[in-house]
Amino acid sequence: MNGHGKLSFALFAQIEKVGIAPNGNTLVGLLSACSHAGMVEEGRRYFQTMIGVNYSILPRIEHYGCMVDLLGRAGLLNEAHTVIKQMPGEVAPNAVVWGSLLHGCRIHRNTNLAEHVLKKLIALEPENSGNYVLLSNLYTSVGRYEDSAKLRLSMKHRNIQKLPGRSWIEADDGKVHEFLVGDRTHPWSDRIYMRLEELVIEMRKLGYVPSTEVVLFDVEEEEKEQSVGEHSEKLAVAFGLLKLPLKDTIRVSKNLRVCRDCHSVIKLISKITGRQIVIRDNNRFHSFSDGFCSCNDYW
Ligand code: ZN
Ligand code: ZN
User: Fold this and answer.
1) Separation of 265 CA from ligand 2 center, angstroms?
2) Contact predicate 121/195, CB 8 Å
3) What's the CA-to-centroid distance between 2 and ligand 2, angstroms?
4) Is the whole model's pTM more than 0.90, yes or no?
């Protein structure tokens, strides 16, 4: 999950060398390594040998989920969808599996399949606001304004609450500081926004263009309604820059997936300030250093 796919294969080779039989969990580790490193061929091969004579492990829902994730990220959306359709009856696809396919649709901008997936997700988790918001954003992005409005209305009728973006950082005083999107309640708020403004000036010199108009389809949950410049992880990182000693890694946790704009901004911040920054979003770890992220922009 830190993007060290090759290292996982090396470890697995050692397991095999000493003659320890891999179990289902070993394979989950391997398949998700393939997925996070974009290694489609290897993933397919492990999945096949897993079912076959080599390991004879019965695939669980996690294994199917990994395959859908791997194929979806790589843009092989039909193949990923087929994996779901061919899942045996006793392992019915859950919201995690459909969510993986949705992520693939978002990366590769497949709105038709995304609509189908989101409808499945809404049926599976009628209380989850994120699916409604994404589907309504999707409708807006393709000009289906009436469908979008209808969906918003049905959300209102069902009294479904939206989930705001939230980030946490532990400061050197041992206290956990929480930031909401657009937060101005923190005692250091003035300094935080000032630091971000200074950084944006530096970033522009490096070619950064802030995306005031966020691609609707790209932003999770409610975040698009706030200016991207105020996303909670940007605030938490700026606070970390101000509060933590230079040698310390800035570690931030976030409840939603990091958006594209925050990802490029934090890469640039790591370059400008020379700081190590680690963001754990709801999907994986991003380790930023000297303008690069360990996910290789693949998440
Ligand atoms: Zn963001
Ligand atoms: Zn990343």
Assistant:
1) 11
2) no
3) 9
4) no
